């Protein structure tokens, strides 16, 4: 079968399966993206490759995955831009010092647990990397991440955005995302610098210069598109083209520095003007293609790279259970206790912890980077994917039990301290 026909068949199959799974999980009061993530895993060796290996081999031959990967990388680039665009660090100014402390504990606690457990896992489940510090830092970062887009959708669906719980969770998740991606950028610099492409001082220095230029030069320059937006009364093709060029250019710079193109796209989203109409219209136009078409391809590729059958034996399943437990204790427990110490009632503090424990697609992005860099072995990659799915799936039912909409009457306001 010609490669282009196969590509069309692959994309069509992925689209049908992920949309059906998303619809089904939506009926179960889960975010659609949870169903789409699980559908991607099902298309890999964990289900399709196990039930019908000949069909799996014909539909997703190894030689054809390069085309799918290219499409998914474009989608990821735009997705990370949208993540940066949706972040609103202004929440922190409204909520005060307590929210900052909660966000820091929600990062430090799981990071420390992941870092310490990495010392035990390194000789057993690390990838090709010879850098223990890179492996340990990566495990800490992977444990610390919160899926801001999934969290925001859960809050919207449960009408919790304007509650104190929603405001605190959004603010903390925004800080978590920025921190996690900064840590990840540092890890990539450490790991890739050992390969000899660029010296570490050039990679790190170039990254710092890039971020400063984006924050203080590019940010001012692209403010002009808001004037054009207001003058034209809407989003024009020229404005979209400028945005695409900023995203692609930022990705190209960070990829050339040896960090990752996704980090550049994320920074591009952060520096975009926060004009309500422009941001909303831009998000709506991009999400229609990114979320519906391109991200499901990424879910399928993640599923093809992971397999539940790589987790063999009691010892491996014990590692899986420990990783899930540490991820929950560090993230959910750390966030909840910190929120309680800073004046929130136990029920609201528990709700914040549950929301912060949601990892979703952002976790899958980080894990795939770890696998590509040789930091994670395929077995550990599969374990971490299970952890990401488990902590994401558990969020909605736990939140419904702990903090139902009917009781969510507290308005967004500052906390004591």
The largest pleated sheet is described as: none
Mean pLDDT value:
86
Which strand-content bin applies to the residues?
A: under 5%
CATH architecture: Up-down Bundle
Helix content: over 70%
CATH class annotation = Mainly Alpha
Q: At the third CATH level, what is the topology name?
A: Na+/H+ antiporter like fold
N/C terminus separation: 65 Å
Radius of gyration: 21 Å
What class would the helix/strand composition place it in? mainly alpha
Count of all domains: 1
H-E order: HHHHHHHHHHHHHHHHHHHH
Overall body shape: globular
Low-confidence stretches: 406-417
How many strands appear in the DSSP assignment? 0
Number of helices: 20
List the keywords:
417 residues; mainly alpha; Na+/H+ antiporter like fold; globular
Report on the architecture of this protein:
By secondary structure, this protein is mostly helical. The protein has 20 helices and no strands. The longest helix has 30 residues, at 164-193.
Summarize the structure.
By secondary structure, the protein is an all-alpha fold. It has helices at 3-27, 32-42, 48-51, 53-59, 65-86, 90-95, 97-125, 132-144, 148-157, 164-193, 200-221, 224-232, 237-256, 261-271, 276-305, 313-341, 346-356, 360-372, 378-393, 395-402.
């Amino acid at each position: 079968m010609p490669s282009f026909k196969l590509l069309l068949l692959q994309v069509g199959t992925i689209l049908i399966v992920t949309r059906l799974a998303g619809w089904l999980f939506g009926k179960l009061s889960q975010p659609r993206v949870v169903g789409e993530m699980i559908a991607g895993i099902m298309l890999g060796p964990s289900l399709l490759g196990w039930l019908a290996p000949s069909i799996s081999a014909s539909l997703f031959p190894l030689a054809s995955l390069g085309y799918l990967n290219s499409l998914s990388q474009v989608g990821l680039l735009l997705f990370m831009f949208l993540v940066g665009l949706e972040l609103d660090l202004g929440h922190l100014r409204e909520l005060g010092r307590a929210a900052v402390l909660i966000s820091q504990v929600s990062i430090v606690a799981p990071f420390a647990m992941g870092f310490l457990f990495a010392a035990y896992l390194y000789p057993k489940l690390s990838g090709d990397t010879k850098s223990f510090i890179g492996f340990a830092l990566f495990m800490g970062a992977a444990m610390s991440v919160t899926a801001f887009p999934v969290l925001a959708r859960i809050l919207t669906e449960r009408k919790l955005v304007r509650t104190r719980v929603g405001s605190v969770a959004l603010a903390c998740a925004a800080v978590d995302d920025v921190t996690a991606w900064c840590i990840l950028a540092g890890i990539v610099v450490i790991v890739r610098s050992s390969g000899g492409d660029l010296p570490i001082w050039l990679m790190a220095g170039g990254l710092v210069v890039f971020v400063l230029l984006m924050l203080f030069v590019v940010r001012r320059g692209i403010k002009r598109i808001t004037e054009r937006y207001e003058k034209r009364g809407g989003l024009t093709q020229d404005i979209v083209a400028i945005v695409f060029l900023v995203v692609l250019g930022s990705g190209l710079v960070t990829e050339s520095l040896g960090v990752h193109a996704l980090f550049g796209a994320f920074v591009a989203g952060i520096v975009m003007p926060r004009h309500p109409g422009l941001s909303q219209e831009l998000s709506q136009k991009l999400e229609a293609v990114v979320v519906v078409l391109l991200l499901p391809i990424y879910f399928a590729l993640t599923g093809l790279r992971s397999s539940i059958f790589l987790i063999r034996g009691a010892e491996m399943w014990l590692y899986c259970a420990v990783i899930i437990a540490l991820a929950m204790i560090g993230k959910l427990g750390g966030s909840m206790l910190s929120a309680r110490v800073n004046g929130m009632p136990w029920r609201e503090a528990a709700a914040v912890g549950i929301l912060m424990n949601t990892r979703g697609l952002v976790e899958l992005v980080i894990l795939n980077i770890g696998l590509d860099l040789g930091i994670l072995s395929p077995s550990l990659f599969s374990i971490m994917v299970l952890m990401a799915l488990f902590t994401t799936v558990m969020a909605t039912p736990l939140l419904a039990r702990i903090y139902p909409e009917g009781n969510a009457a507290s308005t967004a306001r500052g906390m004591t301290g």
